[in-house]
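User: Design a sequence. Structure:
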């Protein structure tokens, strides 16, 4: 059915892009509804990372609270791929982020600093890439709130855009390759 339904390999892979984006959006919307139960920490320091001007920041937080993640009953650990909200107040609802005086941005954890991660606690130093500039100089305090980890979604996205094994994939998906393989297996030539 695949060779008859899609015009090309690119067309086949692109059919998965919008469902993946929608799944990621739905996951994010779902956790925003229960943001009051999400792991959070107060920011101790936030400095612009290198290369400067690229929305990269080095973050140090005091300690994580609400560390129990609801779904798996696991303790939260900061990991690359975590999506966070960095805000000048700790949001209790999604509508808190829409208040006039609130400043906030989404950020993605890109790395963990040091060997701080162990079984009992989460890293308090990490690097993030923010969706917009964080003007920490004007803020009295900042909070970081964990939302979701998108590592799996990023891997799927990369696989959908990586056609490095194009010949193999085309053979797997094409009728002519399947027919010639059957002929070889049945006919013995």
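Assistant: Done.
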């Amino acid at each position: 059915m695949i060779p008859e339904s899609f015009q090309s390999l690119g067309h086949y892979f692109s059919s998965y892009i919008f469902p993946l984006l929608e799944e990621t959006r739905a996951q994010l919307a779902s956790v925003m509804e229960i943001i009051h139960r999400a792991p959070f920490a107060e920011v101790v320091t936030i400095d612009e990372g290198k290369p400067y001007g690229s929305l990269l920041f080095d973050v140090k937080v005091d300690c994580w609270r609400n560390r129990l993640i609801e779904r798996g009953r696991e303790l939260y650990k900061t990991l690359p791929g975590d999506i966070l909200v960095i805000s000048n107040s700790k949001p209790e609802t999604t509508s808190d982020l829409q208040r006039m005086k609130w400043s906030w941005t989404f950020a993605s954890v890109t790395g963990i600093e040091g060997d701080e991660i162990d079984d009992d606690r989460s890293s308090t130093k990490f690097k993030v890439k923010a969706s917009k500039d964080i003007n920490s100089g004007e803020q009295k305090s900042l909070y970081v709130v964990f939302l979701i980890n998108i590592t799996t979604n990023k891997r799927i996205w990369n696989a959908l855009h990586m056609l490095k094994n194009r010949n193999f994939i085309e053979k797997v998906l094409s009728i002519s390759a399947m027919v010639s393989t059957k002929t070889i297996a049945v006919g013995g030539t």
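Confidence is low (pLDDT under 50) at residues 177-189. The beta strands are 40-48, 56-61, 68-69, 74-75, 82-87, 104-112, 125-130, 143-149.
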